[in-house]
């Protein structure tokens, strides 16, 4: 699935990335169909989620304290078991 998860990154790394200045997004427990038009990097402040790639029963799971990179073009379902609160940023679109 190519989702990269770094568990408990250092506060130095988070500061270097500027994570706390990124926009925030949150959602209640439930299932959400998502398509990532650009690569997203996010840092979970709260919550737990299993991500299933479209058409697959395999999943990756991440939770509070994880820094996650989601690849561009991923079509998936987020199965949120605990309220999600995260900082996120999208890579700028690339021009042809």
UniProtKB/TrEMBL annotation:
Gene3D superfamilies: Jelly Rolls (2.60.120.10). SUPFAM superfamilies: RmlC-like cupins. This is (S)-ureidoglycine aminohydrolase cupin domain-containing protein. Residues 15-88 form the (S)-ureidoglycine aminohydrolase cupin domain. CDD domains: cupin_TM1112-like (cd02227). PANTHER family: OS02G0620400 PROTEIN, OS04G0445200 PROTEIN. InterPro entries: RmlC-like_jellyroll, RmlC_Cupin_sf, UGlyAH_Cupin_dom.
